Amino acid sequence: MSGGDAVKTYSRRRMLQGMGAAVVPLMAGRSRAQQPVTDVESLAPISGDRDWTGQNPIHYPDPDVIALDPRFRRYGLFNAPIQRLYTGTVWAEGPAWNGVGRYVVWSDIPNNVQLRWIDDDTRVSRFRNPSNNSNGNTFDYQGRQLSAEHGMRRVARYEADGSVTVIAERYENKPLNSPNDVVVHPDGSIWFTDPVYGISGNYEGNRAEPESKPSVYRVDGGSGRVQRVTDDVAMPNGLCFSPDYSLLYVADTGASETRVFQVQGERLGNGRSFVRLRAPAGMRSAADGIRCDVEGNLWCGAAPGVQVVAPNGDQIGMIRLPEICANLCFGGAKRNRLFMTASQSLYALYVGVAGAHIC
Fold first, then answer.
1. CA-to-CA distance for 179 and 215, rounded, in angstroms?
2. What is the pLDDT of residues 219-278, one digit of tens each?
3. In angstroms, what CA-CA distances link 326 with 22, 63, 71, 79, 104?
4. Which of 93, 236, 259, 313 is 20 to 30 Å from the Cα of 29, by its Cα?
5. Is residue 122 domain-shared with residue 18, that is, in the same domain?
């Protein structure tokens, strides 16, 4: 071996030793991130020194993505941070991902506008103004936007030519209260919740006296017939289907629980309580907007940010945010990016699972 070869061998050995030393704390960090926190009530709402401007990036793993159960480990990515994409709304709600346009549309209810975050250049623009105090939004299988509008007390569909089709505004000749969230079924039907939040004052809609009991409705895709599928809820809010559409989850914020029903064709049956969420001490946690992933977990906009519930009803994970998260959706090219509307801001986080449905 020449002297030059000896130097090369020594340098390579030193380099590999250095790399090994660097890997040890990295793997230790991964191990620490995977240790579940079993005492939810002991958690603080969010780490206090976080800088959302990006000037002082956090160390991985993100300390505000928390496993409450080993089952959540596969969904919390080691090198994925929670990002604040936009701030400036008054009360952000109803995010929906448009796969063709590669954008997220969401509602700012009191400001009576919808905003759009565009994936190509991260630009935010006003998408619909006025929005009729829209709350929940989704896209159907033809790519048309559906909005639950407090101001008009209706569910509306926005057609490709710019026209508007009223999907539902009355039931049994009485006006709806204030449709809140809306989802679509592969059979063409449209399902929505109708609590009284939008008519309880002039902030998120127009004050009015309710004429119908808070309920969940189904609109037939062929006939357009509106039918009440359940009123076995105190104040129905967010809703979503299980991956195979056999179950419908309904967030009942009036009862501080999420209920689940069997989908029996045009009807619902066997309703039961699915989960009552636990939160850090001093915080009330009830699901608002909800979405399922492809493995059947339920992701809930609920204090202290987002709560993740396994198909059997166990809380398995938590995403802490500095604001109240009302709603969420899966999006991105692989549908593995979670978009969260939280009070004044829009947040996003890549996760280790895809959303179950188109929006």
1. 10
2. 999 999 999 999 999 999 999 999 999 999 999 999 999 999 999 999 999 999 999 999
3. 40, 21, 24, 25, 15
4. 313
5. no
Number of domains present in the structure of the chain: 2
DSSP element (H, E) containing 218? strand 215-219
| Together in a domain, 20 and 80 | no
Alpha-carbon distance of 32 to 264, in angstroms, equals: 44
Q: How many CA atoms lie within 13 A of 240 on its CB side?
A: 32
Residue 251 CA to residue 238 CA, distance in Å, equals 5
Cα distance from N-terminal residue to C-terminal residue, the chain: 64
Same domain, 273 and 177: yes
CATH number at residue 72: 2.120.10.30
Per-residue pLDDT at 38: 75
DSSP-derived 3-state class of residue 328: strand
260 and 312 share a domain?
yes
Least Cα distance to 89 among 324, 303, 279 occurs for 324
Residue 346 · residue 338 · CB < 8 Å? no
The SS3 assignment for 214 reads coil
Residue 168 lies in a domain: yes
- Look at residue 47 in the predicted model and tell me its pLDDT: 64
**Residue 67 · residue 36 · CB < 8 Å:** yes
Buried b (16+ CB within 10 A) or exposed e, 229-243: bbeebebbbbbbbbb
Residue among 263, 228, 232, 224 nearest 247 (CA): 263
Query: Sheet of 103-108: strands edge to edge?
Result: 92-98, 103-108, 113-118, 124-128
Same domain, 22 and 48: no
Statement to judge: residues 112 and 151 lie in one domain: yes
For residues 9 and 52, state if they share a domain.
no
Query: Residues 230, 86: one domain?
Result: yes
Please report the sign of the dihedral spanned by the C-alpha atoms of residue 229, residue 235, residue 241, residue 242. negative
Q: pTM score, two decimals?
A: 0.90
Give the span between the Cα atoms of 9 and 13, in whole angstroms: 6
- Which residues touch 24 (CB under 8 Å, ≥6 apart)? none
